[in-house]
């Protein structure tokens, strides 16, 4: 375009940017307005998603909630292993006495005893004195025909004798298996009646024999008995040998 018209157009183009720049400096448009004093362009495409931010700090615990409803009971679990024994607890108070039990069977009681007296006035010396008056001989362990006690139950026995002495002196001894165990002597005093006695504990085995016997000469057999004076001999089992019975 030439001539005056072309010249005018060129002048306007030169002056316009200068005016626009001054106007821009004086008034800054609000970038938030839809049209910031100029014609807006077409909307752009959405940008890509940014990277996730960092985890924030833990918040404070809230208030305790209300108790919920009881749930359904679950299936019973397997039995666990037996634990170690606990410490012994304190001793309890004594209990009440129980009822009386039934009577049991009694244990067997071993019995062996005799008590005999003299009928003859003067027994023969150096032979067993035969005491034929029987006070007690339930087990028949004393033999009146021989004057000897025969042990049937091994154990410990007690023997004793009390003799009336009259007319002459008395010397007696208690024998066990043909051996004298104890001796008793009494010297007779004229116009008087004396007493002689002795006792002993003996352990006897089955088959052992025990008896009384006058020893010495015939002048020493003053053992006496009548209707008002007795000479007695007795013995009994204290306790049997438990290892045998």
TrEMBL record:
Annotated region described as Disordered, given as residue ranges: 22-101
Keyword annotations for this protein?
Collagen, Hydroxylation, Secreted, Signal
Q: Which GO terms describe its cellular component?
A: collagen trimer; extracellular region
Looking up SUPFAM superfamilies in the UniProt record yields: TNF-like (SSF49842)
InterPro entries listed in its UniProt record: C1q_dom, Collagen, Collagen/C1q_domain, Tumour_necrosis_fac-like_dom
Note the superkingdom of the native organism: Eukaryota
Where does the secretion signal sit in this chain?
1-24
Give the location in the cell: Secreted
Give all residue intervals belonging to the C1q domain: 107-244
Q: Which Pfam families match?
A: C1q (PF00386), Collagen (PF01391)
Q: Where is the composition biased (Basic and acidic residues)?
A: 54-70
Q: Which Gene3D superfamilies match?
A: 2.60.120.40
| Protein name, as recorded | ADIPO protein
